[in-house]
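Exercise 7b. Backbone tokens:
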């Protein structure tokens, strides 16, 4: 699929050549949608369109500490101040994925990139925390190490998985 400048998505079964034209065969088709298509198997989706409702799984959230809205990649988005704003969602078995495969899919646009190491998560995108110490928790965030996924629990212990990532302030990243 292609992201178009007007925020719409072009999904095609045809092939794009290097000249930027779309080649359609007799059985090919294309669709233009008004929003980004969610990945298959999605269990929750919070588009941030004026509320914290989960339009996929019913795990509705609550805006905390002045969380607001701003223009997003597609429609509106949550605007978090980087200090203490967040969207709180009730606990769900969906967040305890254990050894099962999972995907976290999001768009992010930084106003400011705060420094921090993997033990101090300055730019958290999403996480689940059942309490202090080795109680089950996980978080996905940006630190000086890049993108980091932190897992902590009585069976797993403490684990950090990182990949290089240098975001640009004011640019959307997916």
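Sequence design result:
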């Amino acid at each position: 699929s292609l992201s178009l400048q007007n925020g719409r998505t072009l999904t095609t079964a045809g092939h794009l050549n290097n000249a930027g034209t779309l080649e359609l065969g007799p059985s090919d088709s294309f669709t233009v949608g008004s929003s980004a298509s969610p990945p298959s198997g999605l269990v929750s989706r919070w588009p941030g369109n004026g509320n914290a409702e989960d339009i996929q799984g019913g795990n509705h959230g609550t805006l905390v500490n002045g969380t607001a809205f701003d223009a997003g990649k597609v429609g509106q988005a949550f605007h978090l101040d980087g200090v203490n704003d967040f969207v709180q969602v009730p606990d769900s078995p969906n967040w305890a994925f254990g050894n099962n495969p999972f995907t976290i899919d999001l768009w992010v646009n930084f106003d400011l990139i705060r420094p921090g190491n993997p033990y101090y998560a300055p730019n958290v995108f999403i996480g689940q925390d059942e309490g202090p110490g080795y109680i089950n928790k996980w978080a996905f965030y940006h630190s000086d190490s890049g993108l980091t996924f932190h897992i902590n629990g009585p069976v797993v212990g403490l684990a950090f998985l990182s990949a290089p990532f240098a975001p640009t302030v004011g640019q959307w990243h997916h």
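Instructor comment: The radius of gyration is 19 Å. Confidence is low (pLDDT under 50) at residues 1-35.
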